[in-house]
Amino acid sequence: MALRICSLASGSKGNAIYISDGRTSLLVDAGAPFSAVEKGLEDIGAPIQSIDGILITHEHNDHIRALPRFTSFAPVYAHEKTAAAIEKFLGTDIPLKSVANFEAGFTIGSIDVQPFRVAHDASYPLGFSFMSGNTKITVATDVGHITAGLLNSIRGSDILLIESNHDIGLLLSGSYPERLKRRIMGAQGHLSNDASAEVIKHVLNSKLKRIILGHLSMENNLPELAFSSAALAIEDLGAQINKDVCLDVALQFKSTPLFEAGL
Questions:
Q1: In total, how many domains does the chain have?
Q2: What are the pLDDT digits (tens) for 54-89?
Q3: Containing domain of residue 92, as a range?
Q4: pLDDT at 262
Q5: CATH of the domain at 185
Q6: Is 124 left (phi over 0), alpha (psi -120 to 50) or beta?
Q7: pLDDT of residue 212
């Protein structure tokens, strides 16, 4: 069956992404408030009790804040280094699902999961690709900078959720302390709109039918700026939005529609 994705919350105040092929349902990260995620799932007809696994990209608070509430519903999948960092941060054990050779990939129900390394200032940050049937969805946020590994992991996706965190001009002129600005723009920080557009230029092909821009900063970005930067990259490649590829922006306090791969 084809994979589907819904961003329930995306941004520096909390992240949670729903992935399903109709038989197996997963969450990527549990950083948004439990009540908001529960409502978002109900809105798309996926009660929280239907979740088969929770995958954690890294231990930062906006990706794990509500994790203790979720663990009574589904097992947690995380790299052992990330799991140790989560337990240290939360001050409690988490019911981690044991996976031998985590980075080699594994299967949850009917969905194959392929983790891949990303450049971020966390213990062992990962992105994830999901495969079911002949469809593939890739989620890559908190990326830091573009690497060959990132691009290779994205290629072949039907849907890509890629970080488009900040507009460089807004960040530089904004009120953040200089130290924080340097962290965000650093090699282990976050992708700017321009960097996200570069990723699109590298990976856009006829199979990739939908791009979702995620993890936008509410202080240092605007949805229209992220969209415009990505749209320009798509058009520079000679592709047409809504004909060759659809372009969407995931927001902090509003779920996206439930998008299906291959459509």
A1: 1
A2: 999 999 999 999 999 999 999 999 999 999 999 999
A3: 4-260
A4: 76
A5: 3.60.15.10
A6: beta
A7: 98
Nearest residue to 118 via CA among 77, 163, 86, 75? 163
What is the 3-class SS of the chain, one letter each residue?
Answer: CCCEEEEEECCCCCCEEEEECCCCEEEECCCCCHHHHHHHHHHCCCCHHHCCEEECCCCCHHHHCCHHHHCCCCCEECCHHHHHHHHHHHCCCCCECCCCCHHHCEEECCEEEEEEECCCCCCCCEEEEEEECCEEEEEECCCCCCCHHHHHHHCCCCEEEEECCECHHHHHHCCCCHHHHHHHHCCCCCCEHHHHHHHHHHHCCCCCCEEEEECCCCCCCCHHHHHHHHHHHHHHCCCCECCCEEEEECCCCCCCCCEECCC
For residue 26 the two structure tokens come to 């997963």
Q: For 248-261, how does the pLDDT look when each residue is reduced to its tens digit (9 = 90+)?
A: 999 999 999 999 99
Residue 31's pLDDT band (cuts 50, 70, 90): very high
Task: Check pLDDT > 80 for residue 221.
Answer: yes
Per-residue pLDDT, 93: 86
Give me the percent of the chain exceeding a pLDDT of 70: 100
Token pair in block for residue 118: 């990303």
